[in-house]
Amino acid sequence: MSAAAEALTVASSPLALVREDLRDFSGYQSARSQRLQGSVWLNANESPWRNDADGDGTLRRYPDPQPQALRDALAELYGCTPGQLLAGRGSDEGIDLLVRAVCRPGGDAVLVTTPTFGMYAVSARLHGTRVVDVPLVEDARGWGCDFAAIAAAVRRDGAKLVFLCSPGNPTGTLLPLDDIARLASELEGKALVVVDEAYLEFADAPSAISLLPAQRNVVVLRTLSKAHALAAARIGSVIADEDLIDVLRRCQAPYPLPAACTAQALQALAPQARSITVQHIATVRGEREQLRVALAGLPGVRRVYDSRANFVLARFDDAQAAFDALLAAGVVVRDMRSAPGLGDALRISLGTPEQNRKVLEVLTGGVR
Ligand SMILES: *Cc1c(COP(=O)(O)O)cnc(C)c1O
Fold this sequence. Notes:
Blueprint: H1 3-12, H2 68-78, E1 85-89, H3 90-102, E2 109-112, H4 119-127, E3 130-133, E4 137-139, E5 142-144, H5 147-157, E6 159-165, H6 177-186, E7 192-196, E8 218-223, E9 235-239, H7 242-251, H8 259-268, H9 271-296, E10 301-304, E11 311-316, H10 319-328, E12 334-335, E13 345-349, H11 353-366
Parallel strand pairs: 2-3, 2-6, 6-7, 7-8
Antiparallel strand pairs: 1-9, 4-5, 8-9, 10-11, 11-13, 12-13
Helix pairs in contact: 3-4, 5-6, 9-11, 10-11
This protein binds pyridoxal-5'-phosphate.
């Protein structure tokens, strides 16, 4: 390879964006990571007996850090290779790992586009990393991302992680994949472009995973918490360049996946459960459009945004009155009024058809 070609390869590897002091970090070497064979296991200080409460004794030993069956099933679900995928405790852990592996505490920055999911800024703050905000832009069509301003802010403020959320929480807006690809290409060698696709199942749109491997600085976050109805199992995935996944794995806790959660996730990804999940997603999509149109027609409702997720964001003349009326009827929605620019907004998750009717009934009677 010529020097120039080699320089190009190095530049395009996302490893160049990992904290220099962590590039050869090997992490904790657990007893499980040594891959030895045997029949009498006396290397991890586990109990040789099962706990009396642990029926089949599956909880006695430390779990596999990345069970191959789970990695294979998730990779098949999302359309990537198992080597491009790291499973962890929800996408929340993925966000945290990325911040820690890429940003130097006290230096560097992460870029967010408010209004957006709060965990990006929380992880940055806990890690001692600055947060740069390039707010979403609102116009007659809805919310949009100012990609040129993001690229300029990365150059100016030294952000090494750009968090995009598509479909956005709380906006429900899907970002154009072409724009994401162009941004990633422009930021190659400067920043990782993280696309949080927690709600992509509801959008019926291609994933940013399709941008890999041509764009090695793209990272995608997926989760079983929303469409797959497994929020309590805490299974999220980071999908990225294989070399980057290896680094993140070494930064992750030794045993991130409880065995019982892995077992549940594998059952949830088997054909029977998956086909029911698909039906529920279709129901949400149909209900979403109905709820949006009906809400938009109510007096006291200023604006309802198009949504590609399992919630709708709406502005009210009197959001407090709407919130209170719903609460009095036992319906809890998300008050968005403390978010910048959303002082009159509520975010309403889609429920069952019956629950959605109840929301409309209450709001029809209560907010004029
Ligand atoms: C719910 C949500 C998550 C969290 O997902 P977990 O996998 O449960 O941690 C991540 N990103 C966004 C945008 C979310 O709304």
